[in-house]
Backbone:
């Protein structure tokens, strides 16, 4: 596929991708919906009148909104029509934008000149625990190899409800949190800044479609109709706070301090070419979780740590989305089987994505194996957990034949605890 917007073969935002995001610019502070093409952003509010297909001609207003929620709510046929329209308008043989200098100038802005924002108003956020390698690693550390997985783990997608208000866009600084910890099992808890700060390499998908009414589950075979697209995610975690608080109700303050996501939402249509076989599941899940199609994806993932003052960062993890045991369709079907109503813009995350090898572990907890090992950095320093000033950057891409579909970056710098 060729576009009149020029880019290299290793560009993350070719015509095959076209991810959605929300941006502003120096000359226009309003939040607008944009699409990444090469190193530019296409402003959909400027070209909304060109979405003249049978489904979108009466819904052009969704492209003039400050978030993607209204567009997400239209459903998969409208998303597909929008993608086809964008690919046509940006193709090298379409003159509508290419030959209209004024429209092209108003619609295309270099990415270097924009600020990115949260792509949607996130009503609810749920985090799953769907990597078998991550779950087994953590279970082995704390319960031993024989009891690594809890009895329910292979029967349902384990998850918890997170805090939507502290989901932030890439580039937002994160404060080291305060909380209660228990340094030793025979001592009372103490209060102070977290000492064992961690990242978690995750991905998440935005819910789309009109949603389901309260009391009405979404069948697993139709779950894809409610999945709009995916982002990178860093689920920042305070491990020492988590260890003390998680029994019996699970994560709370250890997770609500901040969750970073990448600004570009890569649609499921763009990921279609990168589907791979689902992770083998044994035992076979209950019927409401069984789907006949593959809904797993070959997405290369990596994590880099750059200490304060360092010239370059160090890649500490290389993993892949395909390692997930539970698919996004199973996650969504399980989430709604009670009749829980999901809404456009809700965010559902994968949980930490770890592979089998030690260099593919998606958290410092695993990389340092609960503090028994050190992680070397390129400047000669080492880490067990994150230090103040460390910047964590996550990247993800799918490699096609002569093109790449990328997610951009998800980054954040850890700042010292706020003075009390």
Residues:
């Amino acid at each position: 596929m060729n576009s009149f917007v020029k880019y290299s073969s290793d560009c993350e935002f070719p015509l095959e991708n076209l991810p959605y995001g929300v941006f502003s610019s120096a000359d226009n502070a309003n939040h607008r919906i944009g699409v990444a093409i090469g190193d530019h952003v296409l402003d959909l509010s400027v070209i909304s009148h060109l979405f003249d297909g049978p489904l979108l001609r009466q819904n052009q207003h969704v492209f003039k909104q400050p978030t993607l929620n209204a567009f997400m709510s239209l459903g998969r046929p409208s998303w597909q029509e929008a993608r086809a329209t964008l690919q046509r308008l940006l193709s090298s043989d379409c003159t509508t934008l290419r030959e209209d200098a004024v429209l092209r100038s108003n619609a295309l802005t270099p990415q270097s000149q924009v600020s990115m924002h949260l792509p949607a108003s996130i009503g609810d956020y749920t985090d799953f625990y769907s990597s078998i390698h991550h779950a087994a690693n953590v279970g082995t550390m704390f319960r031993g190899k024989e009891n690594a997985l809890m009895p329910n783990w292979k029967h349902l997608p384990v998850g918890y409800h997170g805090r939507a208000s502290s989901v932030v866009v890439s580039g937002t600084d994160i404060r080291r949190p305060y909380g209660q910890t228990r340094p030793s099992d025979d001592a009372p808890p103490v209060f102070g800044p977290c000492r064992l700060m961690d990242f978690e390499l995750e991905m998440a998908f935005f819910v789309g479609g009109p949603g389901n009414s309260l009391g009405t589950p979404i069948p697993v075979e139709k779950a894809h109709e409610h999945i709009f697209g995916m982002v990178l995610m860093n689920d920042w975690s305070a491990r020492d706070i988590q260890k003390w608080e998680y029994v019996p109700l699970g994560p709370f303050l250890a997770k609500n301090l901040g969750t970073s996501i990448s600004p570009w939402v890569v649609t499921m249509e763009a990921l279609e070419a990168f589907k791979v076989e689902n992770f083998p599941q044994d035992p076979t899940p209950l019927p409401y979780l069984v789907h006949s199609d593959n809904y797993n994806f070959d997405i290369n993932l990596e994590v880099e740590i750059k200490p304060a003052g360092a010239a370059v960062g160090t890649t500490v993890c290389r993993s892949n989305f395909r390692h997930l045991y539970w698919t996004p369709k199973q996650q969504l079907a399980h989430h709604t089987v009670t009749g829980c109503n999901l809404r456009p813009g809700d965010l559902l995350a994968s949980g930490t994505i770890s592979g089998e090898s030690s260099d593919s572990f998606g958290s410092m907890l695993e990389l340092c194996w609960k503090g028994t090992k050190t992680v070397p950095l390129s400047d000669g320093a080492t880490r067990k957990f994150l230090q103040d000033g460390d910047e964590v950057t996550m990247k993800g891409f799918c490699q096609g034949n002569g093109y790449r579909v990328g997610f951009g970056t998800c980054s954040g710098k850890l700042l010292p605890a706020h003075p009390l």
